[in-house]
Design goal:
Blueprint lengths: L1 H19 L8 E5 L5 H9 L4 E4 L2 H8 L6 E4 L8 H7 L2 E5 L2 H10 L7 E7 L15 H9 L4 E8 L7 H20 L6 E3 L6 H6 L4 E4 L1 H4 L3
Parallel strand pairs: 1-2, 1-8, 2-3, 3-4, 4-5, 5-6, 6-7
Helix pairs in contact: 4-5
Length: 223
């Protein structure tokens, strides 16, 4: 199956880039971005050993989830206030937290019988007005707020760079976020996830310290 071949190709590239840039073997995990992809394609990826999937649209994701057991679902899209309850009730991770309001709603709406909701704070490393995420200077304040929310587990930081940027520009943005991530860890924060890198730039992200790459097109083909 083509998806299995492409999935294995990406995993092999991740292993290659870990070695190329002096990373620990197995230090970079793969999130398969399945938004706008069919249930059949997700089944093929799961059958090939992929268990973590990323979705950006709540209603679409909920329709997919009922077909699967034991998969981990990450919400990676912009979060609207009226969608937080469904996200809190059904997802294992939320990578796009960018305000105290959203963090509070996710915490308050997380059902008591579920494990804590894993979250990453989305950082707008290019300072794009139209893109979600907070500035690097705002990260520590939001982290401090999230640490006091009992149903959330803060795992790390996430970023989406401009797709049209040159690879060197991407590396600069990734490098800035990686420095912030390491600085936070050096202060004693138990962070383990630096989510950056997609189909077109994950080599640069791994070079700069990413621990999770979010790959869609290179696995599933065009949406």
């Amino acid at each position: 199956m083509q998806i299995e071949k492409d999935l294995n190709r990406i995993k092999n590239l991740i292993t290659l880039y870990e070695k190329k840039y002096g990373r620990e073997p197995g230090s970079v995990c793969l999130l398969a971005v399945s938004k706008k992809q069919s249930i059949e394609k997700i089944k093929q990826a799961a059958s090939a050993g992929q268990f973590s999937f990323g979705e950006s649209y709540v209603q679409e994701a909920l329709l997919k989830m009922v077909h699967f057991d034991n998969l981990k679902w990450h919400f990676i899209g912009p979060i609207q206030s009226n969608k937080t309850r469904k996200i809190a009730e059904h997802f294992d991770w939320v990578q796009s937290v960018d305000s105290t309001k959203i963090a509070r709603r996710l915490n308050d709406q997380r059902p008591d019988h579920l494990p804590k909701l894993n979250i990453c704070i989305q950082v707008n490393i290019d300072n794009e007005i139209t893109k979600s995420g907070i500035s690097l200077s705002e990260v520590e304040s939001l982290i401090s707020y999230c640490q006091d929310l009992p149903k959330l587990t803060l795992r790390g930081l996430m970023a989406i760079p401009k797709p049209e940027q040159h690879i060197d520009a991407k590396r600069r943005g990734f490098h800035q976020l990686s420095l912030k991530f390491q600085a936070l860890k050096n202060k004693g924060l138990p962070l383990d996830t630096l989510s950056m890198g997609m189909s077109y730039d994950f080599e640069a992200a791994i070079a700069e310290g990413s621990t999770m790459v979010r790959i869609g097109t290179a696995i599933f083909g065009d949406r």
